[in-house]
């Protein structure tokens, strides 16, 4: 799908517009879902749980107005402490329940269903990344994408890499150096380990040298881009080239859908998860998706590690 | 009424099952005294697919994939030529560039062939059926020409 559209040809851009706009609309709708369900409802669940606890302990505010006032005052106090330098972290604005939700909790001594739904979605990490990925896959494999929209589905791809460059605005040099040095150690171990493992396995399986070269570069460095870079150098057969790309992308897809859950199950810190994803997932788009799925800090760390790994491409050209 | 076969199209690739198809089609053409045209299509898909990958030497890779495929095709056609020469049949070799399915159908439309001979893989396992593009089936669905399939091991 999408194959046959040359993104560098300006004349083909109008063809891409309908599909691109539909993709943007889809993305906007899903972001609204994320903001409401994963953001508001999930915060609402935390606040509702806190209120329910105080209701059960008999310490609930007498009225809604009293509840709102108490929440605002506690925020003011926290803000003052921060301004005085007693607290390092700036407090976030409090989530204040709506009157109907407050009444429901006080009267029924239970959490409203919508908040439980938001908490469940967050627990299963059905964030915007998951909805966009799964939604795209379901649409493509069930109803399909109409021909008029197909060229536009590839239009987003060139934005991935400039997007990563723009992400650079979030980095502090000290952080980059710190993560970069740890990433460098991880990457050196990973690249060498992958190359050695694949060579040993390839010799045992009597696999073609070209295929081994492609897999070593692809699995060890940065997936498809590395395979493209080294294919002419290692004289790979076209069939082997696509085997290597298929292996890399299938592995990445598997990682993309499992890593966030493994990370959560192991309760990994965002930075640790980011380093893991940045080292293990080869394709940049899949890496960005898996890291974003987990959190913003994970994304920043994963990108630095990924950049370090990409720097190893020239080593395979030798 | 006698059954006449004047021209046969054999489509090959660099796979094992197409060797079996070559052997059969040479015997077949010899028996009927027909002309055997052996076609290899350099698949344009890899070049177009790699055009969408943003890698350092994408263009070099795209050219390389075309060259490598053409080389594979020429080697396969050379093997066919040797076999056809030994059998002493009337033959012709052809290379086309494009999507395999489209190019085979175009060739069938442009020339007057009595038969199309294709090698095909034995797709027994469910996974094989999913993985395979199944070109022979796609050709079968889109042409009314007589087709002989030679199934590989």
Largest sheet of chain B: 5 strands, parallel
| β-sheet strand percentage of chain B | 15-25%
In whole angstroms, the N-to-C terminal distance of chain A is 35 Å
Shape of chain B: globular
Stated plainly, the CATH topology of chain B is called: Rossmann fold
Mean pLDDT of chain B: 87
Approximate helicity band of chain A: over 70%
* Total number of distinct structural domains of chain A: 2
Low-confidence stretches of chain B: none
Amount of helix of chain B: 40-55%
Oligomer type: heterodimer
**The named CATH superfamily of chain B:** HUPs
Low-confidence stretches of chain A: none
Q: What do you see in this structure?
A:
The complex is a heterodimer of chains A (318) and B (153). Chain A is mainly α and 318 residues long. Chain A has two domains: 10-154, no CATH class; 158-317, no CATH class. Chain A is 72% helix and 0% strand. Chain A has helices spanning 13-56, 64-83, 99-108, 113-123, 128-141, 160-167, 173-204, 209-222, 224-230, 238-265, 270-280, 284-294, 296-310, 313-317. The two termini of chain A are 35 Å apart. The model of chain A has no long low-confidence stretch (mean pLDDT 82). Chain B has six helices and five strands; from the N terminus they run E-H-E-H-H-E-H-E-H-H-E. Chain B has helices spanning 16-32, 45-50, 58-87, 100-110, 126-131, 135-142, and strands at 7-12, 35-43, 91-98, 115-120, 146-151. In chain B, helix 1 links the parallel strand 1 (7-12) and strand 2. In chain B, helix 4 packs parallel to helix 6 (135-142). Chain B starts with 6 loop residues before the first strand and ends with a strand. The model of chain B has no long low-confidence stretch (mean pLDDT 87). At the A-B interface, helix 9 and helix 10 of A face helix 2 and helix 3 of B.
List the helices and strands and how they pair.
The complex is a heterodimer of chains A (318) and B (153).
Chain A lengths: L12 H44 L7 H20 L15 H10 L4 H11 L4 H14 L18 H8 L5 H32 L4 H14 L1 H7 L7 H28 L4 H11 L3 H11 L1 H15 L2 H5 L1
Chain B lengths: L6 E6 L3 H17 L2 E9 L1 H6 L7 H30 L3 E8 L1 H11 L4 E6 L5 H6 L3 H8 L3 E6 L2
Parallel strand pairs in B: 1-2, 1-4, 2-3, 4-5
